[in-house]
Amino acid sequence: MYKLHFSHRSSFFTLPVFLLFHPHTLPASPFPFIPLLLPHHTSSSSPPFSYRPNVCALQQVQGTKKKYFSTCRNWYKGSICGKKTLVLYECCPGYIKLEGTRGCPAVAPIDHVYGTLGLVKATTTQQYSDMSKLREEIEGKGSFTMFAPSNEAWEQVESDVRSALVSNVNIELYNALHFHMVNRRLLTKDMKNDMTVTSMYNDLGIYINHYSNGIVTVNCARIIHGNQVATNGVVHVIDRVIRGVANNIKDVLDVTDELSSFKAAALASGLMDKLDQPGHYTLFAPTDEAFDKLSPGYMERIMGDKDVTAALVNYHLLKSVQCSEAIMAGSVYETAEGSTIEIGCDGDSLTVNGIKMVLKKDIVTTNGVIHLIDRVLIPDSAKDGMELMGDSQSTFTDMVSELGLAAAMGPKTEYTLLAPVNTVMSTDQSLLRYILENHILKLKVTLSELYNGQLLETLAGKLLRVFIYRTAVCIENACMVRGSKEGSKSALHVMKSIIKPAEKTIYELLIADGRFKIFLSLMETAGLTNLLKQEGSYTIFAPTDNAFGDLTREDLALLKSDLNALRIILLYHFSNGIFINGGLEGGVTNLLKTLQGNNLQVISVNNSIHVNSVDVPDSDLMATNGVIHVVKNVLYPADLPVGRQDLLVLLKKLIKYIQIKVEKVTRVIGGDPSVTKVTRVIEGEPSLTTVTRVIEGQPTITKVTRVTDTEPIVTKVVVKGEPVITKVTRVIEGDPSFTKVTRVIEGQPSLTKVTRVIEGEPSLTTVTRVIEGQSTNTKVTRVIEGKIYYFKLVDISGVIFSPSFTITVASLQQTKRTSTKGSG
C-alpha cells in the first residue's frame, strides 16, 4: 500500500492508493472475477480491497500520468489508445481510510471549495487562488462549480504565459481562475453533450461535451476527478488549463496563415458561410504543406469542379464535436460529405483513417473544434475512376494504362469500372484488350442503381446482364466483392472473376462442346429441343455422355419409347431463372424448382457446386438464354415412384446416388382368393368409371375413367368364382328401381355389399364391385383384362405443348346378375 499524506488545517488524513497491475502483466487469478492485488492484501480470508466499502478504481496508462476514473459504464478493458493500463484503487470521493479497518469506511469532513482543492490534490490551483485573492470568494457564501486544473495541467502551460499570469496576479490570474468557474453547482450528471454554460469571467461560454463512453470534457479538457462536493459548490479536477473562446471556425481560418489553401477551397465550395454559423463541428484542417504534397495539377482539377471541391472540403468536417481526450479507440464518424472516416488514437497521437497525421489538437471555437493535419483527406466522391482502384486491382490498373484506355476516361466522362482482382487477371496479351473493353461500362452505374435483369453496355458494345441474389450482386458469371465505390464521374465495382459475356444459346454451346450428344438426342426425341434454343432465362444441369455410359443401345431405345417418362426426366434438369455459382448462398441448401415440378437441392461449398449430392465439375457456362452447369450423373426426383419394372431396371443403371421409389404392384391371380379392393373390373365392351345403379337393359352411363385393352398390372386382385354376397344397394331388372335388396341369390351367393351392378350393354363410368364366381369380396376397386402401364403424368403444357393420351376400350364379356322373385 502506498500512502499519500497531506495536511489540511489541523487535521491529518491518510489517503491510501492501491496499485493493481493489469491482468496481462501478472499470473491469472484462480477467481477471474477477483482482481489481482499487490501484497497490501495480507489476509487470505479478507476480501480484495476493490470489494471493500467505498473503494473506487482508476485506470492509468502505462508509462504516462494519464488517469481515467472508471465505472461499470466506462471500463476500458485494459487498453486505452492501444496502450495497456494499470488499475489504481483508492477511496471514493468524500471517503477516507482509517487505520486497522478495511476499505474506506469513514466519511471525510466536507469543506468549502478552497479546502476541497487541497483534498483533491489540486494544490497549484489552491495556491493561485490564494495569490489572486480568490480564496476569500471560494471560502465564502455562494454556490460554485470550479473546474480546477491539476498540478500537471499547470506544468503544461508555456512558461512565459504562466510567468505573465503570476506576475499580474490581481488581474490576469484572477480572471483566468474565474473563467474556470460557474456560478452554480453542476455535477457530472447535470452536464449534457453540446451544453454551454456561462463562466464567471465576462460571461464567456464554457463548452461541455458528455460522450457515450463516459468521458466529460470542458473546452476539450477532460474531467479526471469529478464531483468533489463542497459546502459551497463542487470541484471537478481537469487535465489542462482552459482559456476563453470568442472566435468561431471561420474566424480561425481567416487569421491562420498556414490554412490558406484549405480556406480557398472552402470559399469556392461555399463552406465558409456554414462555418460562420452556430453549430457543433469538428474540422480536420489540412495545412498548406499538406496541399503541397498532392500531385501536380490535382488542385486545378479539383478547383475546376465546384461539386468536387465541395465534396473535398466537406469530407474534412464532422457534424459533432470530437475532442481528442474523448477518443479511446478507433470509431467511425459520418462526415458532412456523407461518407465516413475513422478517428482513433495511438498513445498520445490522434489518428485519421488509421494514420497519424494530427499536428495540433483541440483548437476550441464557439462552434466546434479544429485539429490541424499534415495531409489532405480525399473522399471517393472527389476521385476519378482510376484513383478509386486499390492495391487488389493493381494489375487491372496497369493494363488500362498500358493500352491507353485511361485517355478515354477523361475527368468529364462518365464510366464504370468492373475491375477483377489481381489473382484472376489473365496474362494472355492477345486477349488483353478484349478483356479490358468488356470490363468498362459506358455510363456511371452505382451499386444502388443495379437491378435484376438490367443490361449494361460495355466499351466494346457488348450487353452484360445483372443478376441480384440474396447475398450477392453479379454481372454475367462474375460476382462483386464488397466495397463498391462512387467517384465524381465514375463508379468502381471489384469483381471476383473475369466477366465472360454470353454469345451463344444453350443449344449452340452444348453442340459446340461435344460432351452432350446423348442428352441432345434425348431432348430431340422428347420434342424439347426448342427449349434449348428459344429466348428465356434457364439454368440447366446438363449430364455428359459419360452419365449414360452404363446404358446399352436397347436401354436407350426403351427410354425413348416412353415419351412421358423421358420428358419428366429431362425437365427435372431445368429451372427457370439464371443461377450462377457465386449467386448461390454458401453453406445452406438452395432449392431450385424445376420445369418438371419437383425441387433440385443445390449446395455451394468452397466455390464448388453439388446438386442432389451429385458433383458439378464445370459450372457457369454462360449462354444468351441461360447458364449451363455440367453434371456427372442423370438427375431424378427422389420422391417420384416408378411403376414399371423395365423402366425401373433402366433407371437404376442411370441413377445410383439415390434409392428410387417403387410403386406397389401385385399380380392378377385366377382362382379363389379373397379380394379386399379392386379399382376397376372390365369384362366385355363397356367403358366404365362410375355406376350408380344396377341396370338390365341398354342405359347410357355418363362418366368413364379409364378402359384399356391390354394386360394390366393391377394393384389388387379380382377372382372369378362363386362369391358370397350379403348386400346389394340397387338391382334393376327390366324397369323397376329397388333402393335396397337385402339378399339376391343365384346359386348360393352372399353379397357383403354391392354398390353397382350392370347387365346389358351400358357405357359405365365406375363399377365398384362386379363379382362372378365363388369368392368372398369385401370391396372391388380395379380389375382389368388386358395390359396397361401406369406412370405418373405431369402437365408440361405450360412449357411447350399439351401431350395427348390414348385410351383403348377393352372387349368386355357381359356379366349377368338376376334377382329371383320371392327370394327376399
UniProtKB/TrEMBL annotation:
SUPFAM superfamilies: FAS1 domain. GO terms for cellular component: extracellular matrix; extracellular space. Keywords: Cell adhesion, Disulfide bond, Extracellular matrix, Gamma-carboxyglutamic acid, Repeat, Secreted, Signal. InterPro entries: Adhesion/Biosynth-related, EMI_domain, FAS1_dom_sf, FAS1_domain. Pfam families: Fasciclin (PF02469). SMART domains: FAS1 (SM00554). It is found in: Secreted, Extracellular space, Extracellular matrix. Its main location: secreted. Residues 52-106 form the EMI domain. GO terms for molecular function: cell adhesion molecule binding. GO terms for biological process: cell adhesion; extracellular matrix organization. Residues 109-242, 246-377, 380-499, 503-635 form the FAS1 domain. Residues 1-27 form the signal peptide. This is Periostin. The lineage of its organism: Eukaryota, Metazoa, Chordata, Craniata, Vertebrata.
